[in-house]
């Protein structure tokens, strides 16, 4: 049997429109492929707070896609901006050439970022942004004549995408263990979570700022003269919402300044309103040297990511002959015209609808709804919340770690009409910033039923 015989073909051959009658060709990312293809969780369209299945069943999106559709789905101003741009300029190289919207969007993003985070380098995803920031840090020290500063410090349970730099500095074990030795010269701070001391904290936990002092031990071990940068998430999201303890990020900044080490904030998740501010660095009053972003910058309507650099980082590269490339790094689709158009329309939408301010105002309402509705459910071990995020740790089924949350995610979709995420036996919800108080109530009610329904193995 030929490969095309397994397809229903519209047109003369498979190069026309081939409509698959099975699901095998697509190797899905971060997915239990066999389970999905046995019982698919399929969506065909989306609007505002909802996805819709191919049959038209509404699915309440309690995840903002993948932490990214902050303004809800299929927003008309963004759709129109992309359509107009596609008809006007489909592509322009950003190597030695430019287009106006790239410069406009960079200026708008720099204006949102705090203090002298003034220079924006575009890429296409959070993974690319993380690797870009790490390369910038190492190149910066070379430009400064300190080429021995190459060591990169991350944190246990940290997530910085799936490039080799990101997984080397990241600290999520399954993302690392299959891929060899990774980058040499990395080390890791301890993660910031201790259930015994932090359980059921609303917002930033009181306990844990001292964990930043572990950086002093790492510096003593390796010597500051060898360390280029420390990269952390202000809130570790993919591992199950670990908010930074009060004072922790300020302490990291102080130690980095003391030892002449760059501080990188990975704000791919926390940027663009998720924690009630344009960037979490503003919420915490800490300015990193480099800040990564992606996801919410275009409301996920087009792929885009980037790095915002402080003035001294950027200027360190601008010292040689002016006809020479200053940083040998970039991507074919950096500052893609369609992504820039989507980004500008998204920033307009955030501004015009006051979504950052709405996120901040909704935070205590959301926190109360989650804690009041779920804290006393049987098998709930902990709830963590900061901004418009929440994670609920549930007791595992005996001899099957992670399966209860997986079944809960499946039941939420098929039985409750809601999309959630999981991390181990942890249920994670990160709704769009347009969420109403009624939406928050629905999410919590559906979660409560799913937790009850998975209390014992089926």
TrEMBL record:
Name the PROSITE patterns for this protein.
AA_TRANSFER_CLASS_3
Which BP terms from GO are recorded?
biotin biosynthetic process
What keywords would UniProt list here?
Aminotransferase, Pyridoxal phosphate, Transferase
An example Gene Ontology molecular-function term: adenosylmethionine-8-amino-7-oxononanoate transaminase activity
SUPFAM superfamilies for the chain: PLP-dependent transferases
Task: List required co-factors.
Answer: pyridoxal 5'-phosphate
PANTHER family the UniProt entry points to: ADENOSYLMETHIONINE-8-AMINO-7-OXONONANOATE AMINOTRANSFERASE, BETA-ALANINE--PYRUVATE AMINOTRANSFERASE
Q: Which family does it belong to?
A: Belongs to the class-III pyridoxal-phosphate-dependent aminotransferase family.
Q: Report the protein name in the record.
A: Aspartate aminotransferase family protein
Source lineage: Bacteria, Pseudomonadati, Pseudomonadota, Alphaproteobacteria, Hyphomicrobiales
């Amino acid at each position: 049997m030929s490969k095309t015989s397994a397809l229903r073909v519209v047109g003369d051959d498979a190069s026309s429109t081939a409509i698959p009658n099975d699901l095998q060709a697509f190797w899905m990312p971060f997915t239990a492929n066999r389970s999905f293809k046995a019982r698919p969780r399929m969506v065909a369209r989306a609007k505002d707070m909802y996805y819709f299945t191919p049959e038209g069943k509404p699915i309440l999106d309690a995840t903002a896609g993948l932490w990214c559709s902050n303004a809800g789905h299929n927003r008309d101003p963004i759709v129109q901006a992309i359509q107009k741009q596609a008809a006007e300029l489909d592509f322009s190289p950003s190597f030695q050439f430019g287009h106006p919207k790239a410069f406009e969007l960079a200026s708008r993003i720099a204006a949102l970022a705090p203090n002298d985070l003034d220079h924006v380098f575009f890429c296409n995803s959070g993974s690319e942004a993380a690797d870009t920031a790490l390369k910038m840090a190492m190149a910066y020290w070379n430009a400064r004549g300190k080429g021995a500063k190459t060591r990169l410090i991350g944190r246990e349970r940290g997530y910085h995408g799936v490039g080799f730099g990101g997984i080397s500095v990241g600290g999520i074990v399954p993302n690392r263990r299959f891929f060899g030795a990774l980058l040499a010269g990395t080390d890791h701070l301890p993660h910031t979570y201790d259930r015994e001391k932090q359980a059921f904290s609303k917002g930033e936990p009181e306990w844990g700022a001292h964990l930043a002092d572990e950086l002093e031990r790492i510096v003593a071990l390796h010597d500051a003269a060898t360390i280029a940068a420390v990269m952390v998430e202000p809130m570790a999201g993919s591992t199950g919402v670990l908010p930074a303890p009060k004072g922790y990020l300020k302490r990291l900044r102080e130690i980095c300044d003391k030892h002449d080490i760059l501080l990188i904030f990975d704000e791919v998740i926390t940027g663009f309103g998720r924690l009630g501010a344009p960037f979490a660095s503003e919420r915490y009053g800490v300015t990193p040297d480099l800040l990564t972003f992606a996801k919410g910058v275009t409301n996920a309507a087009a792929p885009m990511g980037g790095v915002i650099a402080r003035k001294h980082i950027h200027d360190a590269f601008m010292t040689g002959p002016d006809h020479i490339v200053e940083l040998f790094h970039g991507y074919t689709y950096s500052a893609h015209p369609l992504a820039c158009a989507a980004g500008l329309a998204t920033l307009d939408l955030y501004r015009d609808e006051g979504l950052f301010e709405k996120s901040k105002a909704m935070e205590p309402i959301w926190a109360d709804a989650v804690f009041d509705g779920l804290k006393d459910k049987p098998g709930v071990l902990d709830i963590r919340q900061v901004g418009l995020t929440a994670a609920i740790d549930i007791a595992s089924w005996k001899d099957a770690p992670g399966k209860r949350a997986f079944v809960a995610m499946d039941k939420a979709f098929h039985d409750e009409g809601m999309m959630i995420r999981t991390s181990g036996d942890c249920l994670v919800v990160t709704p769009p910033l347009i969420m109403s108080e009624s939406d928050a109530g629905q999410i919590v009610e559906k979660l409560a039923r799913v937790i009850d329904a998975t209390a014992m193995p089926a």
